[in-house]
Amino acid sequence: EPQEYHNYILKRIQKINENKSLFYETTHINKSGKRIPVELSSRIIELDKKSYILCIARDITDRKKAEDEMKRQLMKFRLEDGNIYTVREIAPTISLEAFKDIQKIGYESVIISRTTEKEFQKYFNGNYKYLWLHEEEHDEKLSNLRKIEKYIGNLTRKTVILLDRIDYLITKYSFKETLNFFQNIRDLAYLNDLIILVPIDPQLLSEKELKFLEKDTKEIELRYGKTLSEDLLEILRYVYTKNKSGYKPSFSDIGIEFNITRPTIKKRIDKLIETNYLNISISGRNKVVELTHKGRDLFLG
Residue ranges of the chain with pLDDT lower than 50? Predict the structure, then answer.
């Protein structure tokens, strides 16, 4: 087992010894390699004058699925595990937004790009692993494509990858070889439940080449269509979260959450009421809001 795993176990044992018991969540890998989320209740027991640690594990797969689905309902983009998503854009704009979107619900994240990490951080300084596509000085027989493929193959589920500058790979290794690589990582995405985002500059490839690359991939789609601006959507997400817990937020709650003035709140709320996404009511001295059926349908679709 890796040294990190041993260190992790030792820290858990230390906490159990200190507190006499410990309750936590972790991931169990069964004999077939399947990862199962479990809830562990551990405590020290005495038996024949010896101390033992008793662990009771409970499978929480269904609960985790429900939590994951709720988080996804708050996302801006519709992204599903096991797929490659392509988007035609000169610079990674939409793809980067989608990357940040899936990061918010706890995915491990990896960026693979020809751009140096220092340069990339000028327009995205987040928490991610970075793999730089650079020129190899020797060992040309060991193709960079194979290195990337092997790297992706070792990633675990709940990982999102932004594969930037595929045009560089085509220039360096030919379109045919890059297409073969693309098909291989598409299979890896499916087998390992990964999400791979690929921006493609349409100015650098022919229409035929674009269609070859896009075959059996999906487009990055907005979850709620293009009818609502992001400032209105963020209010709906906030109201949805509060309504789910049985609370109707007031105008003041919304102002504090998004740091906006009361006239701006009124303008945005009025727009959402006019388009039948929100209902307004009075609670004491405050105006409070809740989602309409139409508003709830945005997050249940």
Answer: 1-2, 138-142
- Please choose, from the candidates 110, 89, 90, 88, the residue with its C-alpha nearest in 3D space to the C-alpha of residue 99: 110
CA gap 291, 277 in Å, rounded: 6
SS3 category, 247? coil
Domain that holds residue 240: 230-300
Q: What is the CATH number of the domain that holds 236?
A: 1.10.10.10
166, 54 Cβ separation under 8 angstroms: no
Q: How far is CA 22 from the centre of its chain?
A: 29
**SS3 call for 180:** helix
pLDDT value of residue 24:
81
Residues forming beta bridges with residue 45, ordered by sequence position = 52
d(CA 68, CA 288): 28
Report the alpha-carbon distance of residue 23 to residue 39 in Å, rounded.
8
Helices 144-153, 175-192: axis angle to 10 degrees equals 10
Structural contact between residues 255 and 291, judged by C-beta atoms closer than 8 angstroms? no
Predicted pLDDT of residue 301: 55
Same domain flag for 212 and 87: yes
Residues 82 and 217 sit within 8 Å (Cβ to Cβ): no
Q: In the sheet where 35-47 sits, what is the strand order?
A: 21-29, 35-47, 50-59
Q: Helices 175-192 and 207-214 sit at what angle, rounded to 10 degrees? A: 20
**186 and 272 assigned to the same domain:** no
Give me the torsion for CA of 288, 294, 298, 300, rounded to 10°.
Answer: 100
State the pLDDT at residue 139: 46
CB distance 260 to 201 below 8 Å:
no
Provide the sign of the torsion angle of the four alpha carbons 144, 149, 150, 151, taken in this order: positive
pLDDT of residue 141: 40
Q: How far is the C-alpha of 142 from the C-alpha of 138, rounded, in Å?
A: 9
